[in-house]
Amino acid sequence: MQNKKKGAAVLLSAALVAGLLAGCGTSNDKEKAEVEVVVAKEGLPIVNEQISLTLTAPDVGIQNWKDMDVLKEMEKLTNIKMIFNNAPKESFDTKKNLIFSSGEYPDVFYAAGLTTAEQMNYGEQGILIPLEDLIENYAPNVKKVLEDNPEVRKSITAPDGHIYSLPVIEFNQPWYRNPMWYNGDFLKALGYDKLPETTEELYTYLKRVKEEDPNKNGAADEVPLSSVNLRDIRTWLLGAYGIYEEEIYVDDSDVVHYTPVEDGYKEYLIFLNRLWTEDLLDHETFSQTAEQKKAKAQNNQVALFSDWNAYMTLGGEPSTDDPMFLPVKSEMVDKAVIAKSKGVTTGAFAISKTNSYPEASMRWVDYIYGYEGAMLFNKGPEGVLWEYTDRDSLTKKYLPVPGGGDREDYRATLTPNYGIPAPTISIPEIQLGLTTEFDEWVMNESKTKLLDNGSRIPYPTLFLTAEEQAEVTTLTSDLTTYVRQMEAKFITGADTFDNWDKYITTVTKMGGDRMSQIYQAAYDRWKQS
């Protein structure tokens, strides 16, 4: 079966889109619009005549997308030319808001991090088109994923029954935030052959780091625990007090909690205040950048920190000498709780109403949700960083990095799927033959310290109703700011715990109780759907 668009209709559509997208680019080249375009339901290329689509995405700035080998290969395979209108990752949300308010939309949004509120708002306005019929007819890979995993379909379906975006699907990701890691040299210098298991043992270790010069330079320059605004370590330390997540979490009895008013949250603050008072928590936590934290670590000053892998902060090569943090427990709980990855992140790919080729766009992205496309976008084209050793079994090996250097840094010049929530799916066969000894070690650390320790999803990916979302948006604009300000004040001693009841009263008046009520109702609907 094929979908055909007659030349006159396509030409008229192109004229209309040209008027709407004067500043954003058009879907079609005028000379191409005059010929019949056939969108194949299967196989490659996707279209018989080359078409152009505009794409907007966040850019990490390592390589211009038009020069990336993966996207060049996709153009050859699909016969679809992408015109990139990107913005730096740091300012992308501003760019995204300007686009939606301007009325000049790209054909597709890629890795745009469209929130559920944005999907509902712009979906109901008709700016983002529903995708479920396109999935049914033009996306066999996505369709199979949703059939095999009804929880995914449930998580990406808006309350009006429509699907407005495709997700990032990473079933094999064990952690919800980047793990914490110990500097192995410090552990060795202090004679640790067993990691701290309780908050008191962790405190003792950090105090020894401060006082016993484990970097052996004769100066008291060690930073026991370093962070950037606590965002990178908050979840791991909250777990010591029975709390899965920093805002909303659901317990084993299906009861939803608003974290900032929990007793465990207060105890977490008391512990961090203790670390701050004794200079065990980096006093630049609330002011430094990730790069500044990393500079300290690479100067062999930092004992405990968060990152994807330890060497990415410490520098040097991947090493099994720097162990993953074992979640500690406080006296409040019998066992630390650990937040597991939800496995699904919505808002990774959407199609706008001004797209003249939604069927071709869906075919394009569906390729990424199959093995060949996922392999291409994950590792780059065959023959650059990897090659097959046995194509039948899909076994592969890595090739030397052209010109030397770090493989991940080079991979970032090949593919857009680097550091952004790009549409993708984790397929185990991708790693066949490519798993290094270090990778195996990280997987084992994750299994024994996180997965086998009872990690769980803190709150599922789901949609609020339009009314609920509007209320949450109104509440959080002031509530989150207040909670984060008070978190810093309590930890640094700018405010005392004598004022805790006053804090709770203020949070309640600002809508803290209402937050848990809204998310409880949404969770109950999701559970029953």
Describe the structure.
The protein has two domains: 2-173 and 345-390, D-Maltodextrin-Binding Protein, domain 2 (3-Layer(aba) Sandwich), CATH 3.40.190; 180-339 and 460-528, D-Maltodextrin-Binding Protein, domain 2. The protein is 40% helix and 12% strand. The protein is built from 21 helices and 17 strands. The strands form six sheets. The protein has a six-stranded mixed sheet. The protein is globular. The model is unreliable at 1-33 (pLDDT under 50).
Question: What keywords describe this structure?
Answer:
D-Maltodextrin-Binding Protein, domain 2, 6-stranded mixed sheet, 3-stranded mixed sheet, 17 strands
Distance between the termini: 34 Å
Oligomer: single chain
- By helix and strand content, what is the structural category? alpha/beta
Fold-level CATH name of the largest domain: D-Maltodextrin-Binding Protein, domain 2
What's the Cα radius of gyration?
25 Å
What do we call the CATH homologous superfamily of the largest domain?
Periplasmic binding protein-like II
Count of DSSP E strands?
A: 17
What is the spatial order of strands in the main beta sheet?
A: 5-3-7-14-8-17
The main sheet comes to: 6 strands, mixed
Average pLDDT works out at 91
Shape: globular
State the CATH class of the largest domain: Alpha Beta
Uncertain runs are 1-33
Tally of structural domains: 2
Please sum up the structure shown.
The protein is of the alpha/beta class.
Blueprint of the fold:
Elements: E1 2-5, H1 7-20, H2 30-33, E2 37-40, E3 51-56, E4 58-59, H3 69-78, E5 80-84, E6 87-88, H4 92-102, E7 108-110, H5 116-124, H6 132-138, H7 140-148, H8 150-156, E8 166-169, E9 180-182, H9 184-189, H10 199-211, E10 223-225, H11 234-238, E11 248-250, E12 256-258, H12 263-277, H13 290-298, E13 302-306, H14 311-314, E14 344-351, H15 358-366, H16 371-379, E15 386-390, E16 395-398, H17 407-411, E17 424-425, H18 437-449, H19 466-492, H20 500-510, H21 512-528
Parallel strand pairs: 3-5, 3-7, 4-6, 8-17, 10-13
Antiparallel strand pairs: 1-2, 7-14, 8-14, 9-13, 11-12, 15-16
